[in-house]
Amino acid sequence: MLGYLISCNTGYGQTDSVVSNDSVITDLKKDKFIFRNVRKDSSKIVLLQPSQKKEVELFSDPKLKYKQTVSAQKGMLERFFTWLAEKLFGNAGFESVITAQRIVIWTVCIAAVVIIIWLLSRSDVVSLIRPKPKATTFNFMDVLEDLDKINFEEKIKLALSDNDFRLATRWHYLKILFLMDRAKLITFASYKTNIDYRYELKSKNHQHAFIRLSYIYEYVWYGKFIIGISDYKEREIEFNDFEKELGV
Asked: CA triplet 50, 52, 55: central angle to 5 degrees?
């Protein structure tokens, strides 16, 4: 049964009253609860444990797949980068593997660019970019005859008969270009210059002599120096020696 307020102070002061019922008394002044006629739960709590046998039976069932051992396997590229990192840096740590990957990627990119440039240089695309060649003192754009049909010895003798040692020297130089082309050392083209052939010539055995003869040709023909018979004879020996060296 609910109790009632017994007494209280006027104003805003604390009350001394007690409110009660059959089971609880509340003392507002002491801020306490006093319980009467409280019943205790005396029932026994039993903790249920699953059957170990049943647990083993369930978890061993392959259809349920409760237990799986998953091991991550490295792919072919990952194994390669790991091997490369060990070879380059002595360890296969994360940073070493990343560095090895960057080295491979940049190497492949640079090689691809070089190959593309090389392929373009050997294709007809270059002709669209390269300006149209003009006849200069260094190339043989003015020679319209087929080299196979030119009698170089006759051309040289004709120039010598006119005492044109400069022209004779030029025919000597064109002759060695023709012989080098036949020996597959260079690829002759009328628009090419002696510098083009110098870079094209890969044979170390002939490079020094060819550079020397190119210098003679430039000096005599481009320099337009007047040379006498004695100077020509000395240069003629060098051209003849190089022709024998080519063996064509």
From this structure: 80
Reduced 3-state DSSP string for 64-104:
CCCCCCCCCCCCHHHHHHHHHHHHHHCCCCHHHHHHHHHHH
162-165-166-170 Cα dihedral, nearest 10 degrees: 100
Q: Where are the domains of the chain?
A: 1-38, 76-121, 147-246
pLDDT of residue 188: 86
pTM for this predicted structure: 0.46
187 and 200 Cβ atoms separated by less than 8 Å: yes
* Cα–Cα dist 179/202, whole Å: 15
- Distance separating alpha carbons of residues 187 and 211, to the nearest angstrom: 17
Query: What H or E segment, with its residue span, contains residue 25?
Result: strand 24-27
